[in-house]
Amino acid sequence: MHPIESFLQARCPDAVTGVKNAFGELTITVAKARLAEVCRALRDDPEWSFDFLSDVSSVDFPDAEERFEVNYHLYSIGRRHRVRLKARVGEEDCRIDSVTPLWAGANFMEREVYDLMGIEFVNHPDLRRIMLTDDFDGFPLRKDYPTEGRGWRTTFEFLPTTDGPVS
Fold first, then answer.
1. Contact by Cβ (8 Å): 43, 49
2. Three-state SS for 139?
3. Residue 26 lies in domain
4. How many CB atoms lie within 10 A of CB 138?
C-alpha cells in the first residue's frame, strides 16, 4: 500500500474507492462526496503538503453509470511529489464540490470544465462560462455533442474533404 493511500485510509476512512500506481504515477479515486475533505487533508498535512494544484480536467465516458470523471493533479513544491485524484460524477447529478477555497488557482480551471463539459462546481465563487458565449447551447467536449456543432456553425462554409493529398 502506498503511504499516501495509508494516510488517506486513516484520515478519511472510506473516501478512497480505488488506487493505481503505474509508471511511477499514483492515481487515487475518491468518492465524490469526500473530495474536498481528501484535498484538504493532502494540502494541510505537513508530511504531504500538496500546495499546488497544477490541473483540473474531466473525461466523458458516455456508457458508464457515472458518466464523467473529474481529475485533479496535485503537486508538493517543497516535498517534490505528486498525486492524481479522480472522482466520478453522474449525468443526473452533474455536480461536485469546488476546490477553489483550497487552491485559488482552481477558479479558472473549474470554470473551463464547467464551460466545456457542463460539470457544476458547488460553492465556486464565480461559476460562469469562461471560453464560450453565455448564449452558447451545449457542452462541446461531451462525446454526444455533434461533431459539426449546432446552430451557428451550420452557416459556416466547410472545406470539401479530399481522398488524396492537398496540392
1. yes
2. coil
3. 3-149
4. 15
Residue identified by cell 456553425 is 153
Q: What amino acid occupies position 70?
A: V
Q: What is the pLDDT of residues 22-63, one digit of tens each?
A: 998 999 999 999 999 999 999 999 999 999 999 999 999 999
Q: Copy the grid coordinates of residue 119.
A: 460539470
Residue 165 lies in a domain: no
- pTM, whole model, 2 decimals? 0.86
The number of folded domains in the chain is 1
CATH code for the domain of 65: 3.30.460.80
The answer to the question of residue 111 being in a domain is: yes
CA 123 to chain centre: 16
* Grid cell 446552430 in the structure block, residue: 151
Rounded Cα distance, 19 and 5, in Å: 8
